[in-house]
Amino acid sequence: MQKLIIIIFLGLFSSITLTGQEYLVVMRKTVLIKGKTSFGRFSCTYQNEQDQDTVSFSKVPNAESLMDLSIPVASFDCGNRMLERDFGKTLKSDQFPHIEVKLDDFKRIGQQYFGDIWIMLTGKKMKMEHIPFDINKDEEGEFLFSEITISLDYFDLSPPKKLFGLVKVQDELIIELSLKL
After folding, report:
1. pTM score, two decimals?
2. How confident is the model at residue 39 (pLDDT cuts 50, 70, 90)?
């Protein structure tokens, strides 16, 4: 009888620990950087389908990073070479060839997901805490999506001006992070 109780107890304990381990498998990572100029909008995209990641729900605050992206600035596609060159020059890609994006403290509260996002750009770090992630669906399946706004001024970057100042880029950039599940 004692052996039966111990076996039942161990079975319940092991099933509790297995269900407590939650994670998401990320198949593709997309970063879209959008901005506005005095004449219109622009967007530059980075997409990585080669490196799969497993994003675990953090049980311990300030645990090790759950996902690290090192994005070569030169790998962003802005739609034309002149815009890509200006994008690289604005982000000082000759001195800082990579943008670092890290996801920490990822958790699910109810049906909503939250995480802390670190961005390192031009040698400066910015931490945005408790950023919401939504689960969206498209024709390819489900993906986690988050949108944040950063200021070029925070990273000591000056927006480019063209045609003697007639075309100006606004100081704020919108970064969309999309993680295909």
Report:
1. 0.77
2. confident
